[in-house]
Design a protein that fits this description.
This protein is of the alpha/beta class and 462 residues long. The chain has three domains: 2-45, no CATH class; 63-240, NAD(P)-binding Rossmann-like Domain (Rossmann fold), CATH 3.40.50.720; 246-462, N-(1-d-carboxylethyl)-l-norvaline Dehydrogenase, domain 2. The chain contains 20 helices and ten strands. The strands form two sheets. Strands 3-2-1-4-5-6-7-8 form an eight-stranded mixed β-sheet, sandwiched between helices. Strands 9-10 form a two-stranded antiparallel ribbon. Strand 5 (170-173), helix 8 (180-184) and strand 6 (193-198) form a beta-alpha-beta unit. It is globular, with a radius of gyration of 24 Å. Bound molecules: nicotinamide-adenine-dinucleotide. Nicotinamide-adenine-dinucleotide is lined by residues 66-72, 89-91, 95, 146-149, 153, 156-157, 174-176, 198-200. Nicotinamide-adenine-dinucleotide (NAD) binds next to helix 4 and helix 7.
Length: 462
């Protein structure tokens, strides 16, 4: 803008010299460095260290999707948009009809908004075949399962797929929490099984976590990475672990959000602080959108599996009040019928205050800076452990996950790049400070060994 203005004020050569100066200055900004990082990170994400260009992908000309619910419908649309025929399978006609109607409605709304031409809409819908019979999908090259999130149901489906699918077909699961290796073991062809974790709404969100099982074949990975490009997703490979990359990190972030409430912040203060930092949505608004009952179910499992993991009870109390979020008209915030505006809730405020009293916590004023640091650095510390565990092959993959799936501000380059820019020594020092807070989780805040090592060597994640 300044350069354009100079064009009207200065002599031609002087304005050019000035423009050069402005450009050089901009090149040194953290924003510029972050964006260049993303450019490289996106390309790096599509490369898997031990899968070279000599590995030939399998052909994918026909796709099948199992389950026509929220995810199955969105997943199907990705392939229809790319001109790839999809057969979608359900157990009941009713569910099939409902799923198809949702897909049509989605496309119709795009036509209405002028985003899609009528003839394109017709072409896409013509590529979709509904069915109730497994025989109709036997010749698909890739089948993606998106049924209920229960191991028993997955078992049933994968045993059936193993029986009917042609040899060489890729069997993918969209599971968000289940062990892909266990799913693969339901078949006699675990080398053909892989996780394809789409994010909701699946036809919109760019991120695709490709979950590599212990036995997943290299050409299966190469195929899924290639097909991801075709359907315009940013694919990032994750090993098998609870939550994969994105949700494993977000759990720590949500835990911090809970501790911040207990210590004196309000949901609106936390959300505002992190939104000002640049996140598309703060943790409490996000919970209300996704459904607070999902996190509740995960925590109930955690209380059994990891009884010494510390959580704020406020989120459980909220769910006990039936406040699951937008879908129940109330969550961390109040909602007016038909509207999505988050209105601060008196009831939630009272619940949190009572909880603090019960816990003997005297509320203190918490700065926006502390909120941002605790939320973002929790992603960083868990991220470092993910790289250390070999779940991700490089830190920049985590940045891609957060930029394309979790609304992390693009111009900050992702959580790991942000930590690099803040200086890992400073990041680790902040973590040690948080570890001394009796209301937080001291064990979690011990800097991950990888982080400590990089600090000692004066290096960065990227
Ligand atoms: N909703 C999300 O935000 C989200 C995000 C990522 C991954 N996932 C995962 O995607 C999967 C599906 O989730 P969803 O939200 O679409 O659920 P959903 O309840 O909306 O849809 C599930 C569909 O599967 C059908 N179904 C159940 N058993 C079946 C079977 N044996 N054969 C064929 N169809 C069957 C049901 O009739 C239903 O239509 C789950 O594994 C979930 O963890 C969900």
């Amino acid at each position: 803008m300044d350069a354009v203005e100079n064009a009207t004020k200065l002599k031609f050569d002087d304005a050019l010299a000035k423009e050069r100066e402005i450009f050089i200055n901009l090149m040194q900004t953290p924003e510029c460095k972050a964006l260049r990082h993303i450019f490289a990170a996106e390309r790096a994400a599509s490369k898997i260290p031990d899968v070279g260009s000599d590995v030939k992908p399998r052909a994918v000309n026909k796709v099948a999707v199992i389950g026509a619910g929220t995810m199955g419908g969105g997943i199907s649309m990705n392939f229809l948009n790319a001109g790839i025929p999809v057969t979608i399978l359900e157990t009941k006609q009713e569910a099939l009809d409902r799923g198809l109607a949702t897909i049509r409605k989605n496309y119709e709304s795009q036509v209405k908004r002028g985003k899609l031409k009528q003839d394109k809409y017709e072409q896409r819908v013509a590529l979709l075949t509904p069915t109730l019979k497994y025989e109709d999908i036997a010749d698909a090259d890739l089948v993606i399962e998106a049924v209920f999130e229960e191991m028993g149901v997955k078992e049933q489906v994968f045993k059936k797929l193993d029986e009917v699918m042609k040899p060489g077909a890729i069997l993918a699961s969209n599971t968000s929490t289940l062990d892909v290796d266990k799913i693969a073991a339901f078949t006699k062809r675990p080398q053909d099984v892989v996780g394809m974790h789409f994010f909701s709404p699946a036809n919109v969100m760019k991120l695709l976590e490709v979950v590599r099982g212990a036995k997943t074949a290299k050409d299966v990975l190469a195929t899924v990475m290639a097909i991801a490009k075709k359907i315009r997703k940013t694919a990032v490979v994750s090993g098998v672990c609870d939550g994969f990359i994105g949700n494993r990190m977000i759990e720590q972030y949500s835990r911090q959000a809970g501790f911040l409430l207990e210590e004196g912040a309000t949901p609106q203060q936390v959300d505002k602080a992190i939104e000002k930092f640049g996140f598309a949505m703060g943790p409490f608004r996000m919970g209300d959108l996704a459904g607070n009952d999902i996190g509740w179910a995960i925590r109930k499992r955690r209380y059994v599996e990891k009884p010494d993991m510390k959580y704020s009870k406020t989120a459980d109390l909220l769910c006990e009040m039936g406040r699951y979020g937008q879908k129940t008209g109330a969550g961390w915030y109040d909602y007016q019928p038909g509207k999505r505006d988050a209105i601060p809730s008196k009831l939630v405020e009272e619940m949190v205050e009572k909880h603090r009293k019960d816990q003997g916590i005297t509320p203190r004023k918490i700065s926006d800076q502390e909120i941002v640091e605790r939320l973002v650095y929790s992603l960083v510390n868990e991220g470092a452990r993910i790289v250390e565990d070999g779940i991700a092959s490089k830190a920049s993959d985590l940045d891609m996950v957060y930029l394309t799936g979790y609304g992390f501000p693009i111009w900050r380059g992702g959580p790991m790049k942000y930590a690099d820019q803040m200086g890992l020594f400073n990041v680790a020092e902040s973590m040690k400070r948080f570890a001394r807070n009796p209301n937080d989780d001291a064990k979690f805040w011990q800097p991950a060994p990888l982080l400590a090592k990089l600090v000692a060597e004066g290096k960065t994640f990227n």
